[in-house]
C-alpha cells in the first residue's frame, strides 16, 4: 500500500516532466481515474512552472522539495521552496467560456507568457478539491494541493431505504463501522451539495474518528440502522475549540426533538472536555438550528455573509458564528481598532469576557509576513490567516485577494490577531481594499481573532437574511452598512 514519497529537484524547468510522469504512476496505485489524475498532474506541473519562472529569489542551483502522499480517499502533493511570492495582477474573466472564447494557437503564440501563466494559475484553483499556500517569515513557502477520488464517495445506489415500521430505539457513540451509514444520511438528504464535503467519504470520516478530531453520536432504530447523527468536529489539528454540528436525521427522524436528544448527549462530551470553547454554524434561514443555539446559550460573535452556495437559490446562504465559552479566561488586553471598538467590546461582553483596556502589544516588525490561505471547493470560499504581520502585509493580502478573485472565489474570510498591533493597525488599508468587519472568533487560529470579509462583486439581499437573536440582527444591520458591495455604501 502506497503511503508517501519525496522528490527533490533543482529549480529548472527540465525536471518538471519527470515529476509529472512519476506522479501519474502514483495516481494509478491509488486508483484515481483519468480525470482526477489529469487534474492533480496539471496543477503540479503548472505550479512548478510558475514557481521556477516567476520567483525571482529562486536561483537555478536551489532546490524544490516535493512530497506526494496518500490521504484518506485521495492524494496530496506538497511543494516546498524558498521563492518569493509571485502575482498575476491582471483581472481574469468570470468564466472559462469567456477565457477560451477566442483561444487559438495563433493567439497563444501572439500573447505574452505572463497572460498564459495567469490563465494556468486560474485553472489550478478550479481543478483542485483543496488548495493551501503558506508563506513563512524566513522566505520559505509551501503549496498543498489535494484531489479526492470520487469512487470513494458513498453512492446513492448503495443506500438502503428504511422500513415503514422502523422507530427510534437508542443512541450511542459512532465507530468506524458507522462511517458509511453516516455518509448515506447526508447523501440521501443533500446529494453532494452539503457545505462540508468530508461527510460523503466514509474513509475520511474513519480517519477523523481515529485521530479524535470527530466525535459522533448516532441514533439507532429498532432494526439496528443509523437514523440520525450529531457530532463535535475540530476545525484543524491542535485546535483549542471544537465545532458542534453535522446534525441530520433520516426522513421521519429529522425533527427537533430527535436531534435534541443526540445534541444533549454530544454536548455533554464538550462540556466535560479540555476545550476552551464550542462553536456552531446555524444557517440563518433555518429556525431549527437557531433554536438549538438558544437552548444551549450560544452567543453570536460574527455573521459570515454568503457562507455557502445553495443549489435552490441565487443567493449564498449566510450563517453566524455562535460561540459558547467553556472556560473562564478572565480579563484580557486587546489591540482594538477604534472604528469597531464598541461592537467588539459588546461581542466579548456577551461571552462574559471583559476587555481591560485598549492595549498595543509591541511586536517585532519583520519584513515578510507569515500568511496561510486555503480554498474550500465545497464552500467556494477561501480563508486567509495572518500568522505574523510583516512590513509587506497589505501588499501580500492584495496579492492573495487578487489571485482568489481571479479564481472566481465568491467570498474570502480574513483572520487577524487582536493582540498584534502590526496587523490591527493596517485594518483601515484593508477596508479600502474592499474588506469589511464581520465579527470576532475566539481561539480560531489566534486566541483572539477579528474576522474581515471580502465579497467578490456580489450584492447580497440583507433583508432576506432571517435572524433569530437580537445580537445577530444588530450584527446584520451593522455589517450591511460596511459592505462596499451594497449600492448605498458606494461612494
Describe the structure.
The chain is of the alpha+beta class and 491 residues long. The chain folds into three domains: 4-149, Histidine kinase-like ATPase, C-terminal domain (Heat Shock Protein 90); 153-275, Gcn5-related N-acetyltransferase (GNAT) (Aminopeptidase); 338-489, Aminopeptidase, CATH 3.40.630. Helix content is 31%, strand content 28%. It has 14 helices and 19 strands. A hairpin with a 4-residue loop joins strand 7 and strand 8. The protein starts with a strand and ends in an 11-residue tail after the last helix.
Which SSEs are present, and which pair or pack?
Blueprint: E1 4-10, H1 16-29, H2 34-54, E2 63-71, E3 74-81, H3 96-99, H4 105-110, H5 113-127, E4 130-135, E5 141-148, E6 168-173, H6 179-190, H7 202-210, E7 214-221, E8 226-233, E9 241-249, H8 256-271, E10 277-280, H9 287-295, E11 299-308, E12 317-325, E13 332-334, H10 341-350, E14 355-358, E15 370-376, E16 381-388, H11 393-406, E17 411-417, H12 421-424, H13 427-433, E18 436-442, E19 448-455, H14 470-480
Parallel strand pairs: 9-10, 13-14, 16-17
Antiparallel strand pairs: 1-2, 2-3, 3-5, 4-5, 4-15, 6-7, 7-8, 8-9, 10-12, 11-12, 15-16, 17-19, 18-19
